[in-house]
């Protein structure tokens, strides 16, 4: 694939151009190591590295064009320099133009929020496929080009990868696509240049403060997604969340709301709940789903609203919603031969842990104990560790603190942070600690009796533990099944 420079420049607002624009660009990249003859290099100021610092190394690679925020003092012969106000935004716009603006050829829905992004985006994708359409998905668990799985490296990929995947979706005949929009992606302009048909806000609770530093900055990153939606798009927000209405304050898109507690455009009521499913009512229409919990009711209501806004007929939407199955590692239930239920869930924030535990308690009442196994990721927001441990202890009969993905931290240091949240005697008395995650799950299974529920939280769909930069195979679902068979 190659393009004329003049064609690519139609997508960006330039401050200054030095050099000819009637040349052919053979590749587009923001990675200096991938620059080859005829390439366009976009110098992006990243979180830890500034692409401008690599420009001097490109002399012998013969790029055709370099996109910068500041024109270098030394200019290479035969190179066109394009100055822009923000090269990260320019990269997204150029990536879209490079792949013929695939998001304009799809009905693309973005989902943002702290919790529920993966489930909501995945179910929108599944609904399109149940309808008989070819569809695509960009998510934390896996990317899909219709039925073809493409491993996901991060929640929201870089602009070039996003547009390449969207382009492949177009080539495969996809008409719809859903994608998670992380706060990092919004803040770093990875979604610049994309055209969304709609956006969904799930909720906002504490997370990623290691990156954003303040809750207000985290909120602003999420809100920027809606601020930039086109007037032709729809924006659906959870008005039960304290910032639900704030999210849509400045959007040009058509504003809609969903709720379990208030009057809204899309309203859900839980009629009857079990560990393996829930009878719900959407705008007065009952449907049995295979999902459990208020948090999933919110996710499904967002999906219901999205489907209606995409123009799909209401009765058919409800029929297909009854056919949806839970996303891998999201409130995934596993039964033991002795009558113990294990629930594997990705909950890795205090709010998510609260939601899952309160859902379990609502369903089982006082008929069984809840034993929770939970850890916290290393090299991430340390402030949430004691909060998450305390909230888990308050809602569990027994709590086992263990390792998650320690990354480059010592597991025992992470556990020490978590133990601060359960220092009170009544919480400490019900808390155990085991840094070996497999053994922690085994402890929980040994403690459990018929009718009890074990929540294994934090990793969900992940099939690895990341320790000192190395990913070791570890799947909570596999481990609990193995242990259940040995007890």
Distance between the termini: 58 Å
- Indicate the mean pLDDT: 95
Question: How many beta-strand elements?
Answer: 26
Strand content: 15-25%
Poorly predicted sequence stretches spanning 5 or more consecutive residues: none
Integer-rounded radius of gyration: 24 Å
Taken from the alpha-carbon principal axes, the silhouette is globular
Query: How can the largest sheet be summarized?
Result: 11 strands, mixed
Structural class: alpha/beta
The number of distinct helices, counting runs of at least 4 residues, comes to 16
Sheet with most strands: strand arrangement: 11-10-9-12-8-13-14-15-16-17-18
**Secondary structure: helix percent:** 25-40%
Could you give the topology of this structure?
Elements: E1 3-4, H1 5-9, E2 14-18, E3 24-25, E4 27-29, E5 39-42, E6 65-68, E7 80-84, H2 87-98, E8 107-112, H3 117-130, E9 135-138, E10 142-145, E11 148-151, H4 159-171, E12 176-180, H5 183-187, E13 198-201, H6 209-212, H7 215-227, E14 234-238, H8 244-247, E15 254-259, E16 266-274, E17 277-282, E18 285-289, H9 294-309, H10 314-321, E19 332-335, E20 341-345, H11 350-364, E21 370-374, H12 384-394, E22 398-401, H13 411-419, H14 425-428, E23 431-433, H15 437-447, E24 453-457, E25 464-467, E26 470-473, H16 476-486
Parallel strand pairs: 4-5, 5-6, 6-7, 8-12, 8-13, 9-12, 13-14, 14-15, 15-16, 20-24, 21-22, 21-24, 22-23
Antiparallel strand pairs: 1-3, 2-7, 9-10, 10-11, 16-17, 17-18, 19-20, 25-26
Helix pairs in contact: 2-4, 3-9, 9-10, 11-12, 12-13, 15-16
């Amino acid at each position: 694939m190659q393009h004329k420079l003049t064609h690519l420049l139609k997508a960006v607002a330039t401050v200054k151009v030095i050099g000819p624009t009637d040349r052919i660009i053979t590749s587009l990249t923001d990675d200096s190591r991938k620059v080859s003859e005829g390439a366009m290099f976009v110098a992006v100021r990243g979180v830890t590295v500034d692409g401008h610092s690599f420009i001097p190394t490109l002399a012998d690679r013969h790029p055709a064009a370099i996109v910068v925020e500041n024109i270098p003092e030394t200019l290479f012969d035969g190179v066109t320099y394009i100055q822009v106000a923000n090269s990260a935004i320019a990269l997204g716009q150029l990536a879209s133009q490079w792949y013929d603006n695939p998001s304009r050829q799809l009905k693309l829905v973005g989902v943002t929020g702290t919790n529920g992004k993966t489930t909501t985006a995945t179910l929108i994708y599944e609904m399109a496929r149940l309808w008989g359409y070819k569809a695509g998905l960009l998510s934390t668990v896996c990317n899909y080009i219709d039925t073809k799985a493409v491993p996901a490296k991060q929640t929201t990929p870089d602009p070039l990868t996003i547009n390449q995947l969207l382009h492949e979706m177009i080539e495969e005949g996809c008409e719809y696509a859903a994608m998670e929009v992380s706060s990092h992606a919004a803040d770093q302009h990875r979604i610049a240049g994309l055209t969304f048909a709609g956006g969904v806000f799930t909720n906002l609770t504490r997370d990623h403060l290691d990156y954003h530093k303040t809750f207000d900055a985290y909120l602003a990153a999420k809100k920027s997604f809606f601020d930039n939606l086109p007037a032709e798009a729809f924006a659906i927000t959870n008005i039960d969340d304290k910032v639900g209405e704030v999210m849509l304050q400045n959007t040009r898109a058509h504003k809609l709301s969903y709720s379990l507690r208030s009057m809204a455009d899309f309203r859900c009521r839980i009629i009857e709940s079990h560990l393996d499913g829930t009878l719900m009512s959407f705008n007065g229409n009952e449907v049995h789903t295979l999902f459990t919990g208020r948090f999933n009711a919110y996710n499904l209501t967002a999906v219901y609203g999205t489907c209606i806004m995409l123009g799909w007929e209401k009765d058919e939407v409800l029929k297909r919603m009854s056919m949806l199955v839970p996303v891998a590692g999201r409130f995934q239930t596993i039964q033991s031969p002795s009558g113990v239920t294990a629930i594997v869930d990705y909950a890795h924030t205090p709010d998510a842990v609260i939601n899952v535990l309160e859902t379990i308690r609502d369903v089982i009442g006082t008929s069984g104990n809840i034993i929770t196994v939970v850890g916290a990721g290393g090299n991430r927001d340390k402030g949430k560790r004691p909060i998450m441990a305390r909230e888990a202890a308050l809602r569990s009969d027994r709590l086992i603190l263990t390792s998650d993905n320690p990354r480059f931290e010592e597991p025992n240091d992470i556990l020490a942070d978590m133990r601060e949240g359960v220092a009170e005697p009544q919480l400490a008395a019900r808390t155990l600690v085991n840094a070996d995650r497999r053994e922690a799950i085994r402890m929980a299974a040994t403690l459990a009796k018929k009718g009890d529920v074990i929540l294994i939280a934090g990793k969900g769909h992940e099939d690895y533990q990341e320790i000192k930069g190395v990913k070791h195979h570890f799947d909570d679902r596999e481990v609990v099944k193995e242990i259940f068979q040995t007890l």
